[in-house]
Specification:
The structure is a single chain. The protein is an alpha/beta fold. It has one domain: 4-Layer Sandwich (Metallo-beta-lactamase, Chain A), CATH 3.60.15. The chain contains 8 helices and 18 strands. A 9-stranded mixed sheet has the order 1-7-6-5-4-3-2-17-18. Strands 8-9-12-13-14-15-16 form a 7-stranded mixed sheet, with helices on one face.
Length: 317
């Protein structure tokens, strides 16, 4: 075995899941703030086709996705007066460049202030798969990140990574929420198979108000993801959904079905950023009889907290 392969095996680990049991056995987060750092709309900072959010939960800071262009998240954080140098954990929702593009620059820049900054990279199983007709952006930078001292932690099943903070792992595609191109292919030993973004995972915060879901693109489907959460962590209301949900091309019929399901889960607050789609967000708002305070289009610098709910960016009003 080569030295480089041995190093790779040592630094890419697969964690064991915690089985879903009664909610009373779990710790629930008491404080939570989510701040958008990358999406298209911006009244402050730089907008782009990408997604990133800073999650602050019970004193822990986590970066969820890293935007598209190398400097966007770094510059937007500076504009918003946010220090990312003490963020040691980063979650990548899937392999696409509009979610991983800023990682290498962030790691190189922030490690000057804190050698452990973004050193733990949490990913879903399948993210390193070779794509036949597209570039797997995280695969091309994996070796560079490992050389910089980063560690990849791979998840297949729902796992509690901090008290009250969960990753979904891979999400079964029960409902036909097909929201990937269908053109991509994954290279396997048995040949080429359709690339349905199998590694797609979401972050879930368990609170006394219900679950708060943070998604990058939701390629597994927002309803599939929510059903996976309540079936495998514990049954609970899903109070808020934040991030990208890839409904931008959804039909009116599909949006009506999605809205009914969201209502069943108890969703009453939503920040629809990135690939959710502006018109799709407004359509969902109409079906749910919601308003501009509780369901908004995501923009740079918008926030969600357990105490005050959504604080939308100026451009999103």
């Amino acid at each position: 075995m080569s030295k480089s392969l041995y190093l790779l095996l040592m630094l890419v680990s697969i964690v064991s899941p915690i089985s879903g049991v009664n909610a009373k056995e779990f710790t629930q987060a008491s404080t939570l703030k989510v701040t958008t750092l990358s999406t298209m709309l911006a009244s402050r900072g730089i907008g782009e086709w990408g997604y990133s959010a800073l999650i602050e939960v019970d004193g822990k800071k986590i970066l969820f996705d890293t935007g598209n262009r190398p400097e966007t998240v770094l510059q937007n954080a500076q504009t918003l007066g946010i220090d990312l140098s003490d963020v040691e954990d980063v979650i990548l929702s899937h392999n696409h460049g509009d979610h991983t593009g800023g990682l290498l620059t962030l790691r190189k820049t922030l490690r000057v202030q804190n050698p452990k900054a973004l050193s733990r990279i949490h990913v879903g199983k399948g993210i390193f798969a070779e794509r036949a007709n597209s570039r797997n952006s995280i695969l091309t930078m994996r070796d560079q990140l490992i050389k910089l001292g980063s560690e990849f932690i791979v998840y297949e099943k729902p796992t509690e990574i901090f008290p009250g903070v969960w990753l979904t792992g891979q999400v079964p595609r029960v409902h036909p929420e097909k929201n990937w191109s269908g053109k991509g292919q994954i290279v396997t030993q048995a040949g080429l198979v359709e690339d349905n973004i199998p590694e797609d995972l979401s972050l879930v915060i368990d609170t006394n108000q219900g679950f708060v879901l943070i998604s990058g693109c939701g390629h597994a489907g927002i309803i599939n993801t929510m059903e996976h959460i309540t079936a495998n962590i514990h049954p609970s209301k899903i109070a808020a959904a934040i991030g990208g949900f890839h409904l931008v091309s959804a039909t009116d019929e599909h949006l009506a079905w999605t809205a009914k399901k969201l209502q069943d889960f108890g969703v009453d607050q939503m920040i629809g950023a990135h690939c959710t789609g502006i018109d799709a967000l407004y359509t969902l708002r109409g079906h749910l009889a919601s308003d501009r305070k509780h369901m908004v289009v995501g923009s740079i610098g918008d926030q969600f907290t357990l105490k005050t709910g959504i604080k939308a960016g100026f451009i999103a009003h």
